[in-house]
Amino acid sequence: MMKCDIILDLLPLYCDGLCSEASKQEIEAHVAQCQECRACLAEMKEDAPVPSLSQESETEARVLQGVKKKFSRGRRRAVLIAVAVMLIFSIVLAGAADVPQPISYTDGLVTAELAVDEVIDLYYHGGSYDSFHGFSREVNGRNAVFLYFDRTLRSDVMPDREGHLCIGNGLLTDFETATYQVDRQVDAVYYLVGDYLELPGLAQAEFEQAVADAVLLWER
């Protein structure tokens, strides 16, 4: 069995729980039989520092502060993600709002009449529209004007346009959204949805086939 001087040297480690299991058993066996060492151990335990309320409060405050910082970082991250999503959505929506969609012809969508000054007046009755497209070309031996209207999400929420087009002096215009050069002598006006960049350049046979479904609005 260990001597008292060795036990006394090991008691601080025993109190702090730092000694080995074998040493712990030796110390406990010795203290059980040695009154002097037992008294010394009791004194050490009484002198051991006990965490004060202020220390515990300080520890809790540090823990709470850490949690608060993590929560703040998480909330900032969530806000940034939400803002980024809203920004992307706004950009996509803004782009989609300007994508034109052709307006297919329905009965009474456009009416036409010849004015006394040889100007052809065209009236659009479809409510809102964004713009219109037009060109002229000979078909079946006559000078014809082809046109169609388009709409966008943005134009759908705007007030209805008056939709008054004029053909005269070699121009097709609504005086607001677009103006196109056309033949000065126009014999017919058609409504046709199509690729107005490609159609004018087609060979005559291909062109007449492509415009076979055009709706006649007016003819001389």
TrEMBL record:
Keywords: Membrane, Transmembrane, Transmembrane helix
Gene3D superfamilies xref list: Anti-sigma factor, zinc-finger domain
Name this polypeptide is given: Anti-sigma-W factor RsiW
Domain spans labelled Putative zinc-finger: 4-38
InterPro entries associated with the record: Anti_sigma_zinc_sf (IPR041916), Znf_put (IPR027383)
Transmembrane segment boundaries: 78-97
Highest taxon listed in the record's lineage: Bacteria
Species whose genome carries this gene: Pseudoflavonifractor capillosus ATCC 29799
UniProt key word Transmembrane helix: yes
Family stated for the protein in its record: Belongs to the zinc-associated anti-sigma factor (ZAS) superfamily. Anti-sigma-W factor family.
